[in-house]
Design a protein that fits this description.
Blueprint: E1 3-6, E2 13-14, H1 16-29, H2 36-42, H3 47-54, H4 61-75, E3 80-81, H5 85-94, E4 98-102, H6 107-117, E5 125-127, H7 140-149, E6 158-162, H8 165-174, E7 177-181, H9 188-193, E8 198-200, H10 203-212, E9 225-226
Parallel strand pairs: 1-4, 1-6, 4-5, 6-7, 7-8, 8-9
Antiparallel strand pairs: 2-3
Length: 238
């Protein structure tokens, strides 16, 4: 049985504006520079580690997080599904795939977004950033998702789709097929280096090719394959 699991921010939903604004305000409050290049260079799903890398003192991380939450709370409704994602997931579901998300986002943040975007009913398997004490690229979140998917779902017949190198590294560690979506934190070269065996500019573009190739029959190993050209990049958590 085929399980297809996704990252959330920057992969299924466009959170670029809301996340960038919140992070920029935090960095400005601490007198630190912040731009796309520094974000990509220091990004990790563990927001505490990322803020340390960006220069926030360890004893002020909770203060920074409080400011981020207050700022993001003003923009949370701006998070929307990327064009074509709902239809793409409906096609995968109708083809018999088990679908879900493995995200670094907190449950209290992401669950309302699942409802607002209409993606919730299509993604019954869910592992959030506060479900486990470890984060991507640690393999445990993806292993937990496969356990939730139930008997018959094995890593080697599963796919993980994400937009960051840590997504690819997690999939490789578990033995699932890593599919990279180009984004603000996912340059094609970095995704390939992290283990991506396929690249696409969007989930919709990847699903189109995956189903055309026969769904699960398309899974396997090999060099990264590009699908189309990149459009506006998404952004991962924080």
């Amino acid at each position: 049985m085929e399980a297809i699991l996704f990252d959330w921010d920057g992969t299924l939903v466009d959170s670029l504006g809301a996340f960038h604004r919140a992070n920029a305000i935090v960095m400005e409050a601490f007198g630190l520079s912040f731009d796309l290049q520094s974000y990509r260079r220091h990004y990790t799903p563990d927001w505490r580690e990322m803020y340390r890398r960006l220069g926030i003192p360890s004893d002020r991380l909770d203060e920074a997080n409080g400011l981020w939450e207050a700022t993001f709370g003003d923009d949370g409704d701006a998070v929307i599904a990327f064009p074509g994602v709902v239809y793409a997931l409906e096609r995968l579901r109708d083809a018999g795939a088990t679908l879900g998300i493995v995200t670094a986002g907190l449950r209290e943040v992401v669950e309302p977004q699942l409802a607002r975007t209409g993606l919730g009913p299509l993604l019954p398997i869910r592992v959030f950033g506060d479900d486990l004490p470890v984060h991507k690229p640690d393999p445990e979140p993806l292993r937990r998702a496969l356990q939730l998917a139930g008997a018959g779902h094995r890593a080697e017949t599963s796919i993980y789709v994400g937009d960051a190198p840590t997504d690819m590294q997690m999939a490789v560690a578990v033995g699932a097929r890593p599919v990279g979506i180009e984004s603000a934190v996912g340059h094609p070269d970095d995704l390939r280096a992290a283990g991506a065996v396929e690249l696409a500019p969007s989930v919709s573009a990847w699903v189109e090719r995956h189903l055309a190739a026969g769904g699960g029959e398309a899974a396997g190993t090999g060099h990264a394959e590009d699908v189309g050209q990149s459009d506006s990049p998404g952004q991962a958590t924080r």
